[in-house]
Design a protein that fits this description.
Length: about 120
């Protein structure tokens, strides 16, 4: 992206929502209880130079964000109208977004030991 080679070691993010998470939709004459989202379609990456959170929940669509030390990128699928215009299927765009590096500093987001514990839990499944 933008002349940079980016390699991500993605791991499933199974801790995104609690197993007990439910959504309740209520209308005048109905109530529908839905369980939480399928956590098998969310992925994360973290190393010394980058972090990423990606979703593959919609078939053939990748959505997410990649944080590098000096850049931040957002990944989204093109709308069906734009895909038809460019003649592609499953075409995505990557756009550069404002830097949020100050948010990801360990002191302000997560202490390093918490991050290490979280990724250890994720790797162990």
């Amino acid at each position: 992206a933008f002349g940079k080679f980016i390699s991500l070691q993605l791991r499933p993010n199974k801790h995104l929502t609690s197993p007990q998470f439910k959504t309740i939709l209520r209308g005048d004459n109905y109530e529908e209880v839905m369980t939480g989202p399928d956590n098998n379609c969310y992925f994360i990456h973290s190393d010394t130079t980058s972090s990423a959170a990606l979703s593959l929940c919609n078939q053939n669509e990748l959505n997410g964000i990649v944080f590098l030390t000096d850049d931040t990128f957002e990944i989204q699928p093109l709308s069906s109208r734009l895909q038809a215009l460019v003649g592609g299927r499953n075409t995505h765009f990557v756009k550069r977004v404002p830097q949020f590096s100050h948010i990801w500093a360990d002191e302000k987001f997560l202490p390093q030991e918490v991050k290490e514990d979280l990724f250890e839990e994720i790797e162990q499944g």
